[in-house]
Fold:
Amino acid sequence: MRLYQGDALELLRRAKSETFDLIFADPPYFLSNGGMTCQNGQMVSVNKGDWDKAATFEEIHAFNLQWLRQCHRLLKPDGAIWISGTSHNIFSVGFALQTLGFKILNDIAWQKTNPPPHLACRYFTHAHETILWARKTPRSKHFFDYAGMKRDNADKQMQSVWKLPAPAKWEKRFGRHPTQKPEILLDRILRASSQPADLVLDPFCGSGTTGVVAARLGRRFVGFEIEDEFLTLAQKRLEEETMPPAQTQQIPGICNENVLGGGGVNGYFPWRFHCRPACCAVC
Structure:
């Protein structure tokens, strides 16, 4: 298990081609526009941080093309990718996937059991997020645990609408992330489309939910995160899930050669290229 601190695009560009079996990405939704919403009965700002500031469609689509192009390069020939989003960015993501040669397998609707109300009362309450699942090319193969998913669904074929709760309070005991995904969602995704010992990448790992679930299921994990606050949160969660605890090193050099290329040692980069081993396991 490893966490690397830095800009996702820069780290994606430095990683070796055909490295990962599976990618889960929860990119910025570009929703931070100064508005207000209701959470737990209180009015709060929708602003999440500079990384989520509202942008034009052209800017959003250019960004999606850049990071997805790198993900396509980094996937193994039979690899697959999942991307979570809302109407603000998911259509751009879907178009970019097809432009870059991916094959979209499913569009999953994650139906939230307790969505926040729509305060303006001018249209329907936003009650779901869309998650796209795609394989690397139309002709490549992909892994799908059909039997396991059917078994989880009372021996019926699992459908593409998933009614799942938001993250529970215990999942936020080390701190909060504004777009944190529930562990039950990542558990289903990873079990459905990866196998034990597969290498999973989350280029926008936030609070580290993907890594926590990957460790629990016996997958290997690499996560990228630029914000100090969320990197620390992810590391705490991974340390709790993986024993022995993490050993954070500060050794000048470049990142693990098996992941980001080069011939150096695990250690810190100046500013954007900090590398922090999240635990003692080899990724």
Notes: The chain has one domain: 2-277.
